[in-house]
Amino acid sequence: MDKLSRDDIEARLEDFPDWSLNGEKLQRTFGFDDFRGAMAFVNRIADLAEEHQHHPDIMVRYNKVTLTLTTHDASGLTENDFAFATSTDTVAAGV
Hints:
It is a single chain. This protein has helices spanning 6-13, 35-52, 79-93, and strands spanning 20-22, 25-31, 57-61, 64-69. Helices cover 43% and strands 22% of the residues. It has one domain (6-93): Transcriptional coactivator/pterin dehydratase (Gyrase A, domain 2, 2-Layer Sandwich). It is α+β, with helices and mostly antiparallel strands. The mean pLDDT is 94. It is globular and about 40 Å long.
């Protein structure tokens, strides 16, 4: 998969208002009522990652989960990252 240009990334970000760029990575922090809610979300994301064969970096801080997306093989962001972000937002909306 080809790495997206900076212009492509910035244009796509308009459709992802809760996500931000952190260098060459796409990042979002999700908030939950408590630690159990955060961990339930992480488990759903783990299943989603296996389905997509695309695995985010995950950081858990009590009731907050930060996901960081990048395509290591492309050394940056690709279509896969934005597809995974879309799926992640869908999972988060159902939590």
